Amino acid sequence: MLEAALHMRPIKPITASIASGWAGSLILVLFSAGLFSMNLTFKLIPVILVFNCAMAGFMLVDKHSQWLKLPVPMAILSGSLTALAVVLTLIAIGFAYLGWLVIGPVDGLMFVCVGPLAGWLGGKLALKAKTLR
After folding, report:
1. So where are the chain's domains?
2. What angle do CA 17, 85, 66 make, to 5 degrees?
3. In angstroms, what CA-CA distances link 115 with 15, 51, 61, 108?
4. Given this model, what pLDDT does residue 4 score?
5. Are 21 and 82 contacting, i.e. CB atoms less than 8 angstroms apart?
6. Is the pTM for the entire model greater than 0.90?
7. Which residues of 30-39 are buried (b: 16+ CB within 10 A; e: fewer)?
8. pLDDT tens for residues 28-60?
9. Cα(53)–Cα(75) distance, integer angstroms
10. Contacts of residue 77, Cβ cutoff 8 Å, sequence gap at least 6
11. Radius of gyration of the chain from its Cα atoms, rounded to whole angstroms
């Protein structure tokens, strides 16, 4: 039982970093949609998504690297799952409330492919920051 609990320990930090990146992305997208025009908001979605995926990877590695056996691959996983969650949520919200897709399939695939790269960069930055402290 104790060994199973030790293997489950990284799940809570990973889900916390994914939820934080997901919520941050949605808050920034909805805020920019209310503040700017829709064209500018569509142009800002990749920047917002990449920033929050990198922050998800950074937060995971910075706070919980002692529990993770492989911190950078976990940061990549965190960034990719954050990107996937945000893209699926934006597609669902856009289709439910606007009646059309806010993010097309090509854009969604591009965002999901860029998410792991941003998570990797965030994880590497967190490791460098830890060594400098």
Report:
1. 11-132
2. 20
3. 16, 9, 16, 11
4. 52
5. yes
6. no
7. eebbeeeeee
8. 998 998 999 888 988 999 999 999 999 999 988
9. 9
10. 14, 116, 119
11. 16
Closest among 94, 71, 78, 77 to 19, alpha carbons compared:
78
Residue type at 107 in one-letter notation = D
Distance CA 22, CA 16 (A): 10
CA gap 26, 6 in Å, rounded? 32
Q: Which two tokens stand for residue 15?
A: 């889900």
Secondary structure letter of residue 78 according to DSSP:
H
Sign of the four-CA dihedral 18, 23, 26, 29: negative
Asked if 61 and 126 count as a contact pair (C-beta separation under 8 A), the reply is yes
CB atoms within 10 A of CB 28: 18
For the record, the structure tokens of 27 come out as 């808050």
Tokens 């990449």 correspond to what residue? 50
What is the per-residue pLDDT across 57-74, written as a single tens digit (0 to 9) for each? Answer: 998 888 877 777 788 888
Kindly state the tokens that stand for 65. 């690297």
Cα separations in angstroms, 130 against 59, 92, 133: 12, 38, 5
